[in-house]
Amino acid sequence: MDRNQIAETCREVIYECVPDMEGTPIYEDTVINTDTAIDSMGFTLIICRLEARFDVKIPQRQWSRMSTFGDVVNAFEKRINRKF
How many C-beta neighbours within 10 Å does residue 43 have? Predict the structure, then answer.
């Protein structure tokens, strides 16, 4: 799975979890907590759904280091590519 596919799946999951954001552009440098309507509980839900969707596990200690959408994509891209 390439980076663009991972990013698109991440966007889909965000829009599913936060329907008010649907149609709002999400860029690599979008800061999750300040540029979006996503609070810490919403972020946890998104990460859990992404883990299920991609069938990978992101260590919880790494979650606090993810602040931008690009950070989220990077974390999943690294784990997905490690599987293959």
Answer: 19
Q: What is the reported pTM?
A: 0.91
**Helix 69-83 crosses helix 40-54 at what angle (to 10 degrees)?**
20
The residues, any chain, with a CB within 8 Å of residue 54's CB and separated by 6 or more, are 6, 9, 76, 79, 80
| Mean pLDDT of all residues in 60-71 | 92
How far is residue 43's CA from residue 52's CA, in Å, rounded to a whole number? 14
Kindly provide the b/e burial profile for residues 15-29, where b requires at least 16 CB atoms within 10 angstroms of the residue's own CB.
eebbeebeeeebeee
The answer for residues whose C-beta is within 8 angstroms of residue 43's C-beta and 6 or more apart is 32, 33, 63
First to last CA, the chain: 10
Separation of alpha carbons 33 and 2, rounded Å: 26
